[in-house]
Write the structure tokens for this entry.
Amino acid sequence: MRCLVIVASLAAAGLVGALGFVFSGLYPIGADDPHTRLTFRVLETLRERSIERASRAIVVPNLDDPEMLLSGGADYNDMCTGCHLKPGMDESDLSLGLYPAPPNLSKRHGHDEDPEQSARERFWVIKHGIKASGMPAWGKTHDDGRIWAMVAFLQRLPDLTPVQYQILTARKGSATP
Amino acid sequence: MKKHIGNALVLCAGLFTIATAQAHDPSKHHGGEAPDCEAMKREMAGMKDHDRMDPVMMAMMKQCEGEHHGEHDGGHDGRHHDGKDGHHDDE
């Protein structure tokens, strides 16, 4: 019984301490002041595990359709390059200013090793967005077909040259080359 | 009077619906450059048939082919796959 009281007291003290910290305003919330390594690692793990679990049941369609690359490329160029960059572009105001920094999708990353899983997760992230990261939920305004087209384009993006990128992302009826 | 207010409300709702439906239409995206098809021709020169079957090369050829036709029919836009594709996504 005494042990239970001690545990309950410690839990209550911890809760009061945590609430006090939250309401004190002491936590530096500015995007130019990085999290501690531990906080960053915890939030990163939370994000990655959540995306992995939520996207597990998604069925990936055929992403080799050239028409999908054209549709997805034009949308990527209009909506994503400001943060996620493109071939020949190494940084932007948004890629430098956002925290956590948005991934440079024109470069290959380690988690691309399983293309199917990568496609599932990308579809889910584009559709649902990520809280407190600057990544919007495009599913509110874009249908699944259009999002899959962006995923198809993303799978090819790291291998594209600037010329290939320019041709694939141009919209029909655009002005001059 | 009430009828006029009702009609105005219906009209506003209709206009809002139309605006919402078109706001994310690809044809509403403006600007950008036309595809540099001359660069594609240079890139394809000397390329083997096998390499031309790559989805990226096929998409580029399709883009430039469409651009050529676009010169005659005034161009077109809005290419993308329709609505839901039958693949369930999550949950």
